Amino acid sequence: EKERRVKANDREYNAKFSYADNRIKTSKYNIFTFLPINLFEQLQRVANTYFIVLLILQLIPQISSLSWFTTIVPLVLVLAITAIKDATDDFFRHKSDKQVNNRQSQVLISGLQNEKWMHVQVGDIIKLENNQFVAADILLLCSSEPYGLCYIETSELDEVICEPPNNKLDKFTGTLFWRNHKYPLDNEKMLLRGCVLRNTEWCFGMVIFALQTKLMQNCGKTTFKRTSIDKLMNTLVLWIFGFLVCMGVILAIGNTVWESLVGKDFQVFLPFDDSHTNAVFSGFLTFWSYIIILNTVVPISLYVVEVLRLGHSYFINWDRKMYFAAMDTPAEARTTTLNEELGQVEFIFSDKTGTLTQNIMVFSKCSINGQAYDIYDEFQQKVEITEKTACVDFSFNPLRDTKFRFYDGRLVEAVKQEDPSVQEFFRLLALCHTVMPEEKYENLVYQAQSPDEGALVTAARNFGYVFRARTPENITVFEMGQPVTYQLLAILDFNNVRKRMSVIRNSLGQIKLYCKGADTIIFERLDVCGLELMDITSEHLNDFAGEGLRTLALAYKDIEEEYFEVWMKKYIFVSTVIENREDQLAALYEEIEQDLKLLGVTAIEDKLQDGVPETIARLNLADIKIWMLTGDKLTAINIGYSCNMLQDDMSEVFIISENTLLEVQQKLSTKEHIVGLSRVSSATDVKSDIQLYPDSVFEEAIIAEYALVITGDSLAHALDPGLRLVLLDVACLCKTVICCRVTPLQKAQVVELVKTHKKAVTLAIGDGANDVSMIKAHIGVGISGQEGMQAVLSSDYSFAQFRYLQRLLLVHGRWSYFRMCNFLRYFFYKNFSFTLVHFWYGFFCGFSAQTVYDQWFITLFNIVYTSLPVLAMGLFDQDVNDRNSLRYPSLYKPGQMNLLFNKRQFFLCTLQGLGTSFLLFFIPYGAFCVLLKEDGSNFSDQQAFAVTIATSLVIVVSVQIGYDMHYWTAINHLFIWGSIAVYFAILFAMQSNGIFGVFTSYFPFVTSRNALSELNVWLVILLTTVVCVVPGLVVSFLRVDLFPTETDKQVRHLQLRKRQEPQEQSLRRVRRTSSRRSAYAFSHQQGYGELITSGRN
């Protein structure tokens, strides 16, 4: 579709183009397609497909020594759990789709009649009323407002030609044809689906896009983000499968040799059947038999980790310490796949405005015609503003905003004295904007697109230039109480490329252009006669920016009527062009926005959010590097100091603001050399200090020497393919990086650069639409702030305040990583312990592919006997509580270094499982060779031997997980010891005479229960359990003493503190009995005095 042609209320004409209807469908399945599609999706997992193949092999009698249910029961359970989760998710999608599709709209079809949204078609005329949702992307035709747009009667509307459906929310290009005239259509004349009609009684509009709305075009498929553990698991599953094949080959060779040397002697009473033609073929069949028997070494139930991730997500959602009561906003985990990745973050990329700051703007200071308006003392030193500082009296203005505060009374006097520059300054602020006024309870309220605009218009209002009303053609301003109406000739709107906004107004035949924007953009377009004023104003601007204030430059231009008429004709023509309209408009804007006269600059304060400095300091101690990516300039540097990203004791703050590729290259090379030399020179000192003070944070502090600040223009050159790695090297050697004046695309490029080349886990956090591309790069966190929900809707996690990030990472992220790693290590250990017993048994059963255990035990071991304890560990275990996780940020480092689960840890788990399986088999085997029953007979039956090993296995793995558990709850006790009780209950139930009598072929183990009545058998079980568990205990104790981890050190430190606390309390009680009083009015306990005076964070 190259262009869209629409006629109003002409369904027959519009049907020729086969436009999509308005029915939305976000669900994936229906009743008939759920089973086949979901099964197909699950079979994309290699392990699931592998077990399907195993099931088919088990149906072949010649190679299967296990019943089909030993594989199908666990497989069906895993598939069912995943299917239920998918079905539940899709049910809510169906419910949401149905709710939206059945909403009612009033459609003009031979009179107004109600239609469901899903029946609305392109070209329909629909009526909207106040507070109603917009059903589709519609072209506004008329409204109840006094000056509402009203083009024509629909019967006379010829045609609309516009761009095809796209995802650009801020852009629309079209042309309206009416009575042989063409009229331009842009985004301001569109109402987009998902919006709500406010402050308007009614309006009519024509549907342009139905299903293919801009909102739906922005809801594309979310890229699937996989964690590093997921990627490692795929590799390990392949390794395990290779190990399985090796064991199968060894046992198959053993079978071939045994059949050749020994088996032939048994053929007299155990002859080969027709399928066994020779020993080699017997070995071939045995290989497949052992692949089936040993299949549990590939853990299908491991994929139930999705249950753990779901649980971890709910813990985030339920965390009341991340709930922001002021906005009634809880934290929300919008994905379940990245939780453990939160415990491995190395780089954080943060926006500034609205993320680190509150995004609540207050007009603070200004400079007009070279005069700075700020408060100074008698020595011309700036006075710090406090709550006791007297503010300006605005009582002369009955239309003032009573919440507004300003402290320099000279500006009010200048307004009252009718200073022309001051008048023009506030007149510009009252006219150059897109704010909408509204009367609420007899109070004037401004609805602004951005907090900046609202702050500037409110400032003009308090100084006597009150913006009261607007129509498409006029703006009414009360200037010192007198109403003045200005004709609005054109609005040259703001965008990220222009970085400025202009309006052209006409009053009494005098045409003027008012422009406000970024200082660098405005200064480039000033008349050469105003350079002296520009220099003075620049000094004021730098002072304001140095205080962390957001600055804008203001300028104007007188326009001759003849010139404007020519320009306006070109503007009208270009506005109706479909192709390349934006570029042609930009060129026209550039033409008229030249030779401006500077009025002054504004300075707006945007305060830091609560807890930002403390959060950044704590994340720095966790070895997380924080980069600020912002569209602001010098204010970013000051905010960097305010929030502890930049510090006074840094060796140097590198500022790169060059404009050419060569200059940027030279600057980066120089900085790389300086930083590299300092690292080399300090290396030996660092080693000695770390040896003397192993528990100190000195190792963390050595990277606190340098910071890098780079502007957007320089960054564009630094991201050149030949220079980007140099930039990355320099940036990663600095503690802090601040990128100023960057575009949304550059934000995403910086994140991708680090993610790709450093192979690190990155997190991006922002609150606005310009942060979406950055947030989608890896782990994305959205702030529910003042700039809408775009960032939140694109994020993986969301909350209301930046300070909650420390809890998300240092508590929930670290716990998720810790739990997942412990879960995986234990899971592999228990599965190898369980499965490899068959391998040892193969050497004593003639490699005949017979199983040690009862087939029901094989079926239930993973899904009943050991599933709940490992889930309890994966959901509830914690080495330290949340308070200590925040108190000791260095506990976060093992996740960054990937220490808790990696290929080495997997090898150790495999080795432990191999050793446990060896002991589980050979201790009972050796004991049964010499044991006698109480009646003097031998233990000669295989069933008693199997039950002894199975019971020992269940007890060993339960004791092992009990020892590995760090945090005990009632649920843990119930699941661990309850699983052992369930094992014995099922064991005696399955081996009862009643079950055997009904299902003889399925429950043949009936004599084995008698073995558990023998004391000697229990002694063998006890001996096996002790020998299996004790080596692990010894190794753990030695490791903690000889090679303690960071967690071990902190836990030991906490234990020492707990032991000392009772002594300290008793000492304090003794002191209270003394008559001597202390002269101090604060606690004698050690505080943060040394930390504060040291200048560190």
SSE blueprint:
Layout: E1 4-6, H1 11-15, H2 34-42, H3 46-58, H4 69-101, E2 104-108, E3 112-116, E4 125-129, E5 137-143, E6 159-162, E7 174-178, E8 181-185, E9 190-191, E10 202-209, H5 214-217, H6 228-261, H7 279-293, H8 305-317, E11 332-333, E12 345-350, E13 357-368, E14 371-373, H9 409-416, H10 420-431, E15 436-440, E16 443-447, H11 451-462, E17 465-470, E18 474-479, E19 482-492, E20 500-507, E21 510-517, H12 519-523, H13 531-546, E22 550-559, H14 561-575, H15 581-592, E23 597-608, H16 612-621, E24 625-629, H17 634-642, E25 652-656, H18 661-692, H19 698-701, E26 706-711, H20 712-718, H21 724-733, E27 736-740, H22 744-758, E28 761-766, H23 772-775, E29 779-783, H24 790-793, E30 797-799, H25 804-842, H26 855-865, H27 867-876, H28 882-887, H29 893-896, H30 903-930, H31 942-964, H32 970-990, H33 993-998, H34 1008-1011, H35 1015-1042, H36 1046-1072, H37 1089-1094
Parallel strand pairs: 12-24, 12-28, 24-27, 25-26, 26-27, 28-29, 29-30
Antiparallel strand pairs: 1-6, 2-3, 2-4, 4-10, 5-9, 5-10, 6-7, 7-8, 11-30, 13-14, 13-23, 15-16, 17-18, 18-19, 19-20, 20-21, 21-22, 22-23
Active site: 351
Pfam family, one: PhoLip_ATPase_N
Keywords: ATP-binding, Magnesium, Membrane, Metal-binding, Nucleotide-binding, Translocase, Transmembrane, Transmembrane helix
